[in-house]
Amino acid sequence: MESPISNYLRTVLDECRGSDGGSIPQGNAELARADTELFGIALATVGGSVYTAGDAEYEFSVQSIAKTLAYALALDDRGRDAMAEIVDTEPSGDSFNEISLEPETGRPRNALINAGALAVHSMIEGTSSEDRAERVRLLHSRLAGRELTIDAAVHEAELAADDRNTGIAHLLKAVGVLGADPAEVVDGYARQCAISVNCRDLATIAAVMANGGISPETGERLLDTRHNRHVLSVMATCGMYDGTGSWISTVGIPAKSGVAGAIIGVLPGQVGIAVVSPNLNEHGNSVRGVAVFERLSRDLELHMMHVSPTGDSAVRTTADGDDEATVELQGDLRFAGAESILVALSRTTARALVLDFEHVRAIDDAARSLLQHAVDRLREENRDVTVRDPQSLMSA
Amino acid sequence: MESPISNYLRTVLDECRGSDGGSIPQGNAELARADTELFGIALATVGGSVYTAGDAEYEFSVQSIAKTLAYALALDDRGRDAMAEIVDTEPSGDSFNEISLEPETGRPRNALINAGALAVHSMIEGTSSEDRAERVRLLHSRLAGRELTIDAAVHEAELAADDRNTGIAHLLKAVGVLGADPAEVVDGYARQCAISVNCRDLATIAAVMANGGISPETGERLLDTRHNRHVLSVMATCGMYDGTGSWISTVGIPAKSGVAGAIIGVLPGQVGIAVVSPNLNEHGNSVRGVAVFERLSRDLELHMMHVSPTGDSAVRTTADGDDEATVELQGDLRFAGAESILVALSRTTARALVLDFEHVRAIDDAARSLLQHAVDRLREENRDVTVRDPQSLMSA
Amino acid sequence: MESPISNYLRTVLDECRGSDGGSIPQGNAELARADTELFGIALATVGGSVYTAGDAEYEFSVQSIAKTLAYALALDDRGRDAMAEIVDTEPSGDSFNEISLEPETGRPRNALINAGALAVHSMIEGTSSEDRAERVRLLHSRLAGRELTIDAAVHEAELAADDRNTGIAHLLKAVGVLGADPAEVVDGYARQCAISVNCRDLATIAAVMANGGISPETGERLLDTRHNRHVLSVMATCGMYDGTGSWISTVGIPAKSGVAGAIIGVLPGQVGIAVVSPNLNEHGNSVRGVAVFERLSRDLELHMMHVSPTGDSAVRTTADGDDEATVELQGDLRFAGAESILVALSRTTARALVLDFEHVRAIDDAARSLLQHAVDRLREENRDVTVRDPQSLMSA
Amino acid sequence: MESPISNYLRTVLDECRGSDGGSIPQGNAELARADTELFGIALATVGGSVYTAGDAEYEFSVQSIAKTLAYALALDDRGRDAMAEIVDTEPSGDSFNEISLEPETGRPRNALINAGALAVHSMIEGTSSEDRAERVRLLHSRLAGRELTIDAAVHEAELAADDRNTGIAHLLKAVGVLGADPAEVVDGYARQCAISVNCRDLATIAAVMANGGISPETGERLLDTRHNRHVLSVMATCGMYDGTGSWISTVGIPAKSGVAGAIIGVLPGQVGIAVVSPNLNEHGNSVRGVAVFERLSRDLELHMMHVSPTGDSAVRTTADGDDEATVELQGDLRFAGAESILVALSRTTARALVLDFEHVRAIDDAARSLLQHAVDRLREENRDVTVRDPQSLMSA
User: Fold this and answer.
1) Domain of B193, in residue numbers
2) Is B25 within the bounds of a domain?
3) C170 contacts chain B (CB < 8 A)
4) pTM across the whole model
5) How many CB atoms lie within 10 A of CB B191?
6) Does residue B104 belong to the interface with chain A, where contact is any CB pair within 8 Å?
7) How high is the ipTM of this complex?
8) Which of B334, C24, D268, D354 is a plausible cystine mate for D326, CB 3.0–4.6 Å?
9) What percent of chain D stands above pLDDT 90?
10) For residue D350, is it within any domain?
């Protein structure tokens, strides 16, 4: 059986091909040569499936989309406090080409506008611009699950048209936000923008972010859970420049676009999505890319605020006898799941209780702590509690 | 067993009592009389549990928190397009007391600043200010699950200090955003602000919003699913004024605060939370309220971007024989769940398939459509597919 | 001989009649009825001449032009320090319909935008709105040299469309800038705007301001010299809203426009000018009025920065003998004049000096003090100095 | 006799020495070494007198004060229209370190903020940065009346701390406002800032500007009259950054400050003033410099809006006989002077009229045209008009 999802994605591309208008920006000579008909999509789930349609294997430069992983990398290198001194986390309320430094501190408004991304890039550990860009490339490669390269022609074309970034970098230096040499930072940033990716890569990267930083493929943790959460939060409030509020209420998927025509979207707990089509609207976002995201959000009800109740399914079965009750747990246990288990436990009057963690996939600290408290209380009440925990999840 | 959650909430209140500073605003004579020691919390889950601690039953005026349900009501009355002509959905980047009208259209930036909330109130259907405020009161009562009242003393004190709102209402009239009489709108808005609630009420209301607009208690739909999603999106990007970006990355719970010292938070699919403590910080948010939310988010890992993978648990069991396979589904099926079912189906080679919906609680259109497509395909491949659907979920 | 100036003004009107475009604002029902062909001009010199052309006797409402004399009146009533707490003196950088309150103090940016003018009106002494407006009317009458009236129909039409001013007045009240009742202030301001004037009146008023506050007709002081100077300074930097910088460099005449289509210009030491033509451009200024001012400034070299050297002409004649020298002074002596007299005195070596003030018209404190110092010095050097001062100018 | 003016200036310095506070900016290593006790003043009249006190001969770098003559030079090189495409003439409403580009065109707000001054410098004709700076140096030398030099140490220290200007220059390049190479422009601008001057030089330069662009010393025209007027207008509305409105109403002298602690002031038709004292306030203006200007304006009534009536003194004498009348004219004849002559002429009924221009110093086009018209009219009325014009002023 071919998946109806692949089929559906093809239909969406066909129908969104009619979203005309926009144009290819002329600043970068390499980007300016893009084929306006290029149109691809990939959707990767946190379960590890990847679906594609159209030119999903076609490679282009990642551009501003790299701001997200570069931010995650700098957060890992320096910690959140040090990064907060360099860049704020507020929407700028400005268009994509505004500078938006805070009047008092000189901090860029957020890490996803150019000013912020330059400051962020300068904070990545490394001894040179090549070094820093190389580390960004490596992180992209790890999340994409294949070796990515930096497109030298795009990097050079970028440097040939870098007056704006050079200007911003010098201003950041002047206000004390940039420690490094401006030309170094602009060069490193231009390299980072020139990482070559396709839609499949970007969707795979997005799925790791949707999966809390863990590869759905290998189960390996690739991004710090709190830094991943932070980057997604900033994407949710600042990712689409001065139209982010409207994007979040309409599409509801934290996202980031790049000037080469790609948009990446991350719906936590569900999917990563990437679309590419080079013609951009006046906000600098791909015209067809926006159309596709609106369509997917509507058709598939993919929206940050449309989340399934997560508690109920935590209790797999409850076998309640007079003397002994068994509660089988399952899935990823977080606060709501733990709370529903507590409710189930409080309803049983059996003196002996078995709590079975065999089918639980993961448990976070909050859930573990609540469940441990409950077990302690029940034992204080002289109930006989047995914890079946073959994966030792409760002792982590 | 007393729930460890209640116990935990008491501990949080005790420890956050040390968050000093802030002050009671002096604008409204009734609010100015508030007891600075008042401190309560309630947490209501989408599973229907409610936990409280401190002064959770103490009543105060809902104030700006009513902007959220009033917005939902106006969206129901007029539809999203008509509302979009009156109020935008972008963060203002301004502090709580800015006016923030769009330069060209005069539209307030969003429905959660005063200018927007006045425009929204004027769009609620009704023949008078009493009428409109009464409908807002009724909606609050339905979601809170008990009859709420309007505090006449607060309403009067509000009118005695309404120069700012009167000013804004006249400006909105002047730019054509307000159809109604400014004094009428200000009066109706003042009544809406004076609805008397306690923390339990607010958390219960928030839990309905977290549950997609459906009462966890009765299973009744109380808010339109798309309008609820829209209001939550605006809370996520604009709810905490010029500090929303920082709030979302740190706390990660869409929220709204009121000048009486309450903060309401809605974590979709999980919980509704309400805290009250009258001293406000310079942003107009409760000092202790903010401390409590930061604590809860950290301790309980309650964060919009910290969502469990939702797909896996959709498949309850797969009994795969050579000739016949049975796939038992469960929970709330949405895109990710349906996708994981498709994956499970694609892995089985049995000619005869049973798809068992008995343990499914709900299914959305996207999931239903995908599963129907899959069943159709399998049948086209001459597989023998039986759908066990005692609740007729697939035929809705 | 008919003056070539009258003739010239007729030519200017004829040639500027071709400046088309613009429209009559529809806010005020009375103004909306204006005849678009109405076109008049008056030019009054500080020497007391008045030249007119076109519909110079046609009456219309003074509107925002009254902001200037109302400001002078409030400055007289309260003093400059008290006024500085209520309204700033900086350009707003905003268009004519912006509110422009200072973020920290709530002060309107200047007295010539509506917010500032409302605050200023509230500071005029008086027990009622009628009272305050009556005092503004009286001041206009005194400067115009005839009894002006308030047009009741315009006042009423103004009140029927006052949402914007009412809004601003309430906001000013809310931030503590307005002490009085907002409705009172809006009514008084509407009355002040409805004072009926013609071009001759406005040019005559402007000539008093150009003459340092003294009536060229009667020689009577009608405005405090420092307050007049202050009002003119604010006209120079803020009088034409967001186009003031361009106006001052191009036209170079401190000015103020009114929504009825008039523009008043004051060139200190030279002339007052008033033009009326109802069609307004997008900045709210009379299209033909602007064209006329540009023309007059260019043709007549009327520009604030095009000032004659003022020193030289202070010395009428110097009769320098070996033993006795006579220095005849003339004109209005200010610093530069006094300085040129000092230079003349320092060049003479005659032991006996006669300083003749007979032809001096006026002398300011700075000049008097310098000359007195010089006389004292010369006497210390044992020179024999005689001061002929039949008007006792030096002993004032 | 020592002039009481020199004496007065000494007193002012002594009394303003008490104006403490402020600090020396640390950006430029050469400036940072300045002696905080340095304090000098010079005052030069349009009559050619120069008065000094304190360290008036001490040399320092001209810094931002050079923005004014560089602007005049670029206006001469390119014309006003070409310059208007590069830089606007509006106050920025921003502090001295804002960038203030127009949202739509990218034009800097005015030529006196750094962004504007860099754009202006790039428009000066020349084949290199040395060339352009050399032409700015030459113009300063001509107006100062002595050969000025560029301080190489200051130029180098400037380049060592030029991140802000480099940033702005690249941004201007990016938006298409700067045609030249950013590094070239920044270097040329740094050279221009490093021109070495003393207070006497600056006051002498200012006196040329006050005298309409003509050297009071030699009578030679050094600046185009209209470009000089334009530069003075921009100084009046934008010269003191976000405090210009207040400066103009309080001090009333178009001015420009430099980071080395100097302030230059130009009062058209009267004087040029320069003060130096290195400690700067938070606006970047010399603390004592501001105090001195406030003092001079108050004591000497030096204020742009305090202008002597200019008409009256144009008529020297009127000898009115029955048959023949003689009108002796004098001074600089402009519109107001010509108008007062017309009035005098219209009052005489003598058939034969002698108009004597012997004592007239200068006459502008407007005055010449009006007087010619009058003579023509009188002759049409068969009056016998004789024009005594030994300097051929009327035939120019």
Assistant:
1) 1-307
2) yes
3) yes
4) 0.91
5) 25
6) no
7) 0.92
8) D354
9) 66
10) yes
